[in-house]
Amino acid sequence: MYARQRVRCSVAATLEVVGERWSLLIVREALMGSKRFDEFHDRIGVARNILAQRLKALVGHGVLKRQPSPENKRIPLYTLTPKGEDLLASVVSILQWGDRWIHDDVGAPIVLTERESSQALVPMRPTTKDGVTVTAKNLSIHAGPGATAVMRQRFAPTATRK
Amino acid sequence: MYARQRVRCSVAATLEVVGERWSLLIVREALMGSKRFDEFHDRIGVARNILAQRLKALVGHGVLKRQPSPENKRIPLYTLTPKGEDLLASVVSILQWGDRWIHDDVGAPIVLTERESSQALVPMRPTTKDGVTVTAKNLSIHAGPGATAVMRQRFAPTATRK
Fold first, then answer.
1. ipTM of the predicted structure?
2. Contact A51, A26 (CB under 8 A)
3. Side-chain-facing half-sphere of A114: CA atoms under 13 Å
4. Taking Cα atoms as reference points, which of A80, A56, A78, A82 lies closest to residue A69?
5. Based on the number of CB atoms within 10 Å of its own CB, is A154 exposed (0-12), middle (13-18) or buried (19 or more)?
6. pLDDT tens digit string along A10-66?
7. Which residue of A15, B11, B46, B152 shows the fewest CB atoms closer than 10 Å?
8. Whole-angstrom distance, CA of residue A78 vs CA of residue A36
9. Is A102 at the interface with chain B, CB within 8 A?
10. For the segment B114-135, what is each residue's pLDDT rounded down to a tens digit?
11. What is the C-alpha separation between B30 and B79, in angstroms, rounded?
């Protein structure tokens, strides 16, 4: 996939899988419990042919799995794999940004809570293990083990303390 | 923007701003220090006409600001606004997902640290204020103050404990 690329980046690689509006909305819907084609179609408002393409691609990438419905073998159900469920952090951080910067006038359309405690989620922030919050101001970028030669020229190798 | 929509969603609203591969890669590059058109062009590998469109849209959405370079007034510099810098959490969570699920064989291409302490960032997880991690299994979804009528039918209103 990256054989000819000068740069290897996990943001770009992730966006190859879900970096397109409909794909991430399909993941959002699956996290909210949608399983059937018609549920995704009605709730996202995406054209049926595009939805069919995106569902197939997400199954191909191992984000969704497709299984026959126990009630009716002819109806497939789409559910998240562990890889797909792990996109929750990305979906939540995107949702929280929208709450802060786009829907700040009307209030959050959706409130996410933890089921047992009914406590709301707090804003997700990048942090170190000691709990220091990292912003654009104190972010430092290093070439990691998977960096290409071009990337190692641009970014000093990491000298992180564990 | 949402006058005729039955559903209001901060994921969808955010994706209207950055929900497209190139836009989020431009934000990534800006977080990594790129400021000039040619820097974005060389480092992202996007066609010049598409880059020009996306930069203009991100300025229009208030994610980037465009100012003349102090060295050469004819060269514009693109830098993140506070709204744009606040996308760091989304970019980092997407990067970490790619590290875990796509580049797990080669290792992380990029390692992010906090500048002062040189400590690496820990994986971002949605949590409650008591530090309980929320996954797809214990996530609960409620209609918030900005929910539309259709959303309030689908999701019970929130009864969160602060």
1. 0.92
2. yes
3. 19
4. A78
5. middle
6. 988 898 888 888 999 999 999 999 999 999 999 998 999 999 999 999 999 999 999
7. B152
8. 6
9. yes
10. 999 999 999 999 999 999 999 9
11. 6
